């Protein structure tokens, strides 16, 4: 009997140990899952490979993208720079998901799937004309050859709109669509008389292309004094200044501060570009020496999104709100919802546990019913005077088998209801006593 009890105790201990180990495994697995979910959502320790375009490889934006890529690699962002025909081409590729990011000119028509990440600075629209065509009256350009940059480029789009605002239609001038490379090649091989009479450029200050035309061919900068008026038609532009001496000190070019039209230099992204990667990009721009190396004196973290021409990317929103207190009304509402959820879950778990515990004792019901049938059989034999040693022996064997099967179930841990097990043993004892009485009658 002691050996049987000891065996039962060891089996119960083994089952408890297995239960504890299972809970430990579940807890560890849950902790690991939560860890990876959190680190993945925050981008901790992850390297992102992104494609960015900054338009033509000879433009100032391309150099800006190169400097950003060089600094971003230190923050686990690997950037591949992909040249495009211009801002419109870059925006289309971002929209299609062919590019993750792009540095583009603002003031263009927004398109689907593109999200704004940051407005880095305003770029100035430069109008340069040959000395013999110089005038503050843009109608003097009627009948001239004007290079508006490549078709589909941001410069081409904004230049046409500005000329139209000033009263010049496309039929009033001969449009050229030379790229940076073509301008440089043309300037080396072509006579001055064969060059376009005017050039439009959108660029940060100071533009190397503008400087080249001023120094080599004596092109003159023309003021565009109607920036404020034009901004009333296009909210994404504003009047900016090209400071005196920007392109030459002696002679002074311009010879005084010059008004012109400015468009935002935007960093945009596809809406599906990973949120943590965008946040890291913004941290790279505003929390490193990127501004100094890029000569962007107006980089303003407090207003990094500038004029929002596109919906902000989720990563930009995360960056914007990173210093806000976590204890907000929204956080409290979410916490209350979470508390209610946890409370409901706890009640559900408790009810399930109660049901499960009750089910653990149901396993003895079948044996109690079998005992009842033996008892009924014994009473029937006694009432009909059919008591025999063989019948009593058969009932004894059934009783022993029922007791054995029940004990196996209890010792295996499948039944843990002590009250029901005690009731079962009491019934076994009563049936045994009845069978002993039948044996005496046989």
Write the layout of secondary structure elements.
Layout: H1 2-42, E1 48-53, H2 60-72, E2 77-81, H3 87-96, E3 101-105, E4 114-129, E5 145-147, H4 154-165, E6 174-176, H5 180-189, E7 198-203, H6 208-217, E8 220-221, H7 227-231, E9 237-242, E10 258-270, H8 275-286, H9 290-294, H10 314-320, H11 329-362, H12 365-383, H13 389-411, H14 418-441
Parallel strand pairs: 1-2, 1-3, 5-6, 5-7
Antiparallel strand pairs: 3-10, 4-7, 4-8, 4-10, 9-10
Helix pairs in contact: 8-10, 12-13, 12-14, 13-14
Task: List low-pLDDT spans.
Answer: 1-15, 35-39
| Superfamily (CATH H level) name of the largest domain | Periplasmic binding protein-like II
N-to-C order of helices and strands:
HEHEHEEEHEHEHEHEEHHHHHHH
Number of strands: 10
At CATH's second level, what is the architecture of the largest domain? 3-Layer(aba) Sandwich
* Integer count of domains: 2
Query: Residue share in helices?
Result: 40-55%
CATH fold group of the largest domain: D-Maltodextrin-Binding Protein, domain 2
- The CATH class designation of the largest domain is Alpha Beta
Key terms:
10-stranded mixed sheet; 442 residues; D-Maltodextrin-Binding Protein, domain 2; alpha/beta; disordered N terminus; 10 strands; single chain; 51% helix
């Amino acid at each position: 009997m002691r050996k049987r009890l000891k065996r039962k105790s060891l089996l119960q201990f083994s089952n408890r140990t297995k239960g504890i180990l299972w809970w430990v495994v579940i807890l560890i697995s849950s902790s690991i899952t939560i860890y990876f979910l959190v680190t993945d959502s925050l981008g901790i320790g992850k390297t992102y490979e992104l494609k960015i375009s900054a338009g033509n490889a000879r433009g100032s934006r391309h150099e800006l993208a190169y400097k950003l890529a060089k600094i971003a690699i230190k923050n686990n962002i690997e950037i591949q720079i992909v040249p495009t025909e211009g801002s419109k081409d870059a925006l289309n590729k971002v929209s299609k998901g062919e590019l993750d990011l792009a540095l583009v000119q603002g003031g263009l028509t927004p398109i689907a799937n593109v999200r704004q990440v940051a407005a880095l600075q305003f770029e100035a629209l430069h109008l340069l004309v040959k000395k013999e065509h110089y005038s503050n009256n843009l109608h003097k350009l009627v009948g001239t050859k004007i290079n508006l940059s490549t078709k589909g480029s941001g410069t081409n789009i904004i230049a046409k709109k500005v000329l139209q605002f000033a009263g010049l239609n496309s039929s009033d001038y001969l449009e050229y669509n030379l790229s940076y490379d073509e301008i440089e090649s043309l300037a080396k091989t072509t006579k001055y008389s064969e060059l376009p009479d005017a050039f439009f450029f959108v660029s940060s200050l100071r533009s190397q292309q503008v400087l080249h035309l001023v120094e080599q061919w004596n092109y003159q900068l023309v003021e565009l004094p109607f920036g404020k008026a034009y901004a009333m038609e296009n909210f994404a532009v504003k009047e900016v200044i090209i400071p005196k001496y920007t392109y030459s000190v002696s002679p002074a070019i311009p010879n005084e501060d010059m008004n012109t039209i400015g468009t935002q230099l935007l960093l945009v992204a596809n809406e599906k570009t990973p949120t943590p990667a965008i946040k890291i990009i913004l941290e790279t721009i505003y929390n490193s020496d990127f501004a100094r190396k890029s000569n962007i004196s107006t980089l303003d973290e407090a207003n990094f999104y500038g004029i929002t021409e596109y919906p902000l990317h989720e990563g930009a929103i995360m960056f914007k709100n990173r210093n806000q207190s976590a204890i907000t009304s929204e956080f409290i509402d979410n916490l209350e919802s979470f508390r209610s959820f946890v409370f409901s879950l706890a009640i559900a778990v408790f009810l399930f546990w109660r049901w499960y515990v009750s089910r653990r004792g149901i396993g003895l019901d079948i044996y109690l019913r079998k005992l009842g049938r033996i008892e009924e059989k014994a009473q029937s034999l006694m009432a009909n005077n059919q008591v025999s040693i063989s019948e009593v022996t058969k009932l004894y064997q059934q009783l022993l088998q029922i007791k054995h099967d029940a004990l196996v179930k209890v010792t295996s841990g499948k039944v843990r209801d002590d009250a029901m097990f005690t009731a079962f043993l009491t019934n076994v004892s009563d049936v045994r006593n009845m069978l002993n009485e039948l044996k005496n009658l046989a």
